[in-house]
Amino acid sequence: MKNQPKTGSCQCGAVRFELHADPVDVYCCHCLECRKQSASAFGISMPLPAAAFNLLQGTPKKWSRPTNSGGEIDCYFCGTCGSRLWHENSKRPDIRIIKGGALDEGVSLENADHIWTCRTLPGLPVASFARTHDRGKDMAADRETDVDQDK
Question: Does pTM surpass 0.85?
Answer without folding.
Answer: no
